[in-house]
């Protein structure tokens, strides 16, 4: 480090980077923390209060008069409205105007001569001298303090009930071949473009570079028509995994060919020439020499393509359909946003499941990812 | 059960692809053998195989590129001149409809906002962060964390940010971070993503959040490529930090900045997931890509109008395409 920059300025740099990092990480952190919180707490308090004891106001209804028991000549309805969950009642009341009039342990006189007592642990008793009537139970308002609670329940719920588990497999079925097939095809094409002389090579390269920027949207309608036509012709469904693999292959190829060609063109010529002198054919050279040497470039493209196909929504909902059995994770998440928009415990847990695989890939293989980015964008930089 | 079927399908698909390359090359070598033949015949066969083999290697790629990218571009252009079913020629009527359609004009306007703001801010933040993190010992950790949103899907990011923008009625405790901050400073909570015009910016923040890491990685590599001597010379001449950064470093990586800028610009034109998941174009936040998707399926689908919107997106990309090709051919000429 240059000594002239070791000054208050260095501190300013540290602080501002820290600030930026916090700014960039907090959204994801908030999602993760929220997905692990108890769903009732999640709905009433911000995730940044997750470690604090939260107090909430709620209302419970005592069982109806049917459940009263006679004891010592008095009639008693009892129960516990915390239902065994952790928490402490700090106040209670019986009318919505004064929901926190009484302290736990005190006895409240209800309007018709009944007496209500609520304990700290949430157990309550309504005692009356005469037999109670009415089919609806007494409403009890209470304020309870709940200690922070972290749980995997939200995950259990979305995995079993919301079809996320199924979609997870669908996403995997889409993403893995959609990553491997284009690499294979692009590697051969890139080798041909880099090392095999043939007429029209320069034009083909220019075409590939031009296709890099073609928006996916252009392809949707014609391909949809084509798929429907092919499907009808062969009597097979138009929306198949095969179809989506090929679509992802087609869309990923320009970048793959471009990246791999640039990498392969940079390999030393002598290796190939000496192999050829030894009698190796182009196919042998490619499989035995070029492929192993190109591993870094192949890996970086593989990561890109995997992230892209895993995270893709457009191609999947157009070419795989939106039926319950075919939805990929991203599509499922969009549906949940529509149908369960207010249920944050479901949304946060589902969202985290969809991003956990790319995050693992990202953190494990980050170095290759960066290398691939650099090879593609700033050559000779 | 489904898992087994899926795995079998995957293996079959990948194997079929590998089998193509292996078998075609085997057949080629079998028809025109070059080993074990006398000189003239061997060299003749070698010449033939050398002329054919590149095309064997290229065939699947060319096939896929043609079917999935070239043919659709032409077909979309043709379809945009047809009616909703794609059968009857209607001339430029779809384009006339487009110009007169309020929603389309709204989308174009919003798209220009996106194009102005997102690439600029992503590149700007990327550049600043790259410059700052290169100077500190934990810079790589910081970079990883800022780069991380790259791995998150647009839909996942939309959920993350929808949670941040979440709105609860005034008086109740806010669970959305933004409203909580606003309320803490004495403001009133807002339903951010339903505010016409301003909601565009709240959606853009998501894409900037995702793309800054990309810009940072590339620009940071470019900054490192600047020769030490130029910076040292500037230091000796008494330049301060800002001057070094903006007058010495930035001009030297101008080419890279342009690459990052255009890459994000292309992405902005294509992005529809964020808008779909956050507002689906309601509250005047529609953009071209989502509008096009909308018309593909709205009322059973209007392929003519959908295709004409796609053509507009394509036209917006063409200048970048030409610039790209020119740059690439220039570079390859030097090899």
UniProtKB/TrEMBL annotation, chain A:
Topology with respect to the bilayer: Multi-pass membrane protein
Annotated organism of origin: Sinorhizobium numidicum
Keywords from the named record: Cell membrane, Membrane, Transmembrane, Transmembrane helix, Transport
Family the UniProt entry places it in: Belongs to the binding-protein-dependent transport system permease family.
InterPro entries, per the entry: MetI-like, MetI-like_sf
Domain ABC transmembrane type-1: 168-365
Record's protein name: Carbohydrate ABC transporter permease
Pfam families: BPD_transp_1
Domain of life, per lineage: Bacteria
Bilayer-crossing regions: 12-33, 174-195, 202-224, 244-264, 285-307, 346-365
Subcellular location: Cell membrane
Automatic annotation (TrEMBL), chain B:
InterPro entries attached to this UniProt entry: ABC_transporter_permease (IPR051393), MetI-like (IPR000515), MetI-like_sf (IPR035906)
Membrane-spanning residues: 55-74, 112-133, 145-165, 177-195, 201-223, 244-269, 303-325
Organism for this UniProt entry: Sinorhizobium numidicum
Matches recorded under Gene3D superfamilies: MetI-like (1.10.3720.10)
ABC transmembrane type-1 domain boundaries: 108-324
Protein name: Sugar ABC transporter permease
Family: Belongs to the binding-protein-dependent transport system permease family.
Predominant location: membrane
Subcellular localization: Cell membrane
